[in-house]
Amino acid sequence: QVQNVESGGGLVQAGGSLRLSCEPFDRGFVGWFRQAPGQEREFVAQISSDSGATSYADSVKGRFTISRENAQNTVYLQMNSLEPEDTAVYYCSLVVASMTYWGKGTLVSVSS
User: What's the pLDDT tens digit per position in 31-43?
Assistant: First the structure.
């Protein structure tokens, strides 16, 4: 089964930073989503495969930055000024031919 691979999660204090990495199994439209305990999975950020256009959830605008390194087909999520509310499992999604593929996620925990 094809799958994206996420990494970079961990425990950080409020105000700190982390950088998540996603290695999609193919090239395509990539997004980051997160799911906190007991909550629905929610959109965080996305980046297109061609123009590199990006978009963000209002809750992370100005704090998170999504980028991609095409040579290695890696997508990053730089997270700054982290808040306890950012605690969640972060998932990388890849859209190819109208199908969405997910990774297993990486846990981000932000302590107050």
Answer: 999 999 999 999 9
Residue 72 has phi, psi (to 5 degrees) of -105, 5
For residue 33, how many other CB atoms are within 10 A of its CB? 20
How confident is the prediction for the chain on average, in pLDDT? Answer: 94
d(CA 40, CA 2) in angstroms, rounded, equals 24
3-state secondary structure of 13: strand
Could you tell me which residues come within 8 angstroms of residue 76 by beta carbon, excluding any fewer than 6 positions away? 19, 20, 21, 22, 66, 67, 68, 69
Q: What's residue 80's pLDDT?
A: 98
Alpha-carbon distances of 107 from 67, 96, 110, rounded to whole Å: 20, 25, 10
